Amino acid sequence: MKKTLVVFAHPYLEHSNSNAELINFYVRHQHFTLRDLYEEYPNFHIAAFRERKRIQNYERFIFQFPLIWFGMPPLLKLWIDEVFDRDWLKEGNHNPLQGKEIYILVTTGGKERSFHKEGTYKFTVEELISGLLVSLHVFKADIKNIKIVYEANKLSKKEIIIHKKEFSELLNQ
Q: For the whole model, what pTM was predicted?
């Protein structure tokens, strides 16, 4: 199994049964390292050098977060801004994201039909998280899957378990 870093960002985890249950999956498996950005950086002071050093040790990354006001949580955006280094793109420099597998798990309180061109919000979830997707593309990461859990705040325990099983099966392919 690939050594995996989970970059988790949820500013209101205490109000999210879905995300709490989904992250329990990671803590039960030794090849996953869970980093809760809101727990680690409550004052929004990112230790960028330490983070850059850390990510070099992983073969695969999972970004898990809720959609907050139609985008990524602010601390995740700040983490990307400060940790991802344009110097990685210079010839001869090591790019720790190049070719690495990336999985993205996004939860949202909205209905799936709301996130379409004809829907309530007029944008897809992928469009709303395009800053992350473009960043990963620029650094030549290999985005394997984007899993979106709609109406996460209304899921039953059984539905959450089904999502967790589906996501774990994606990771085991």
A: 0.92
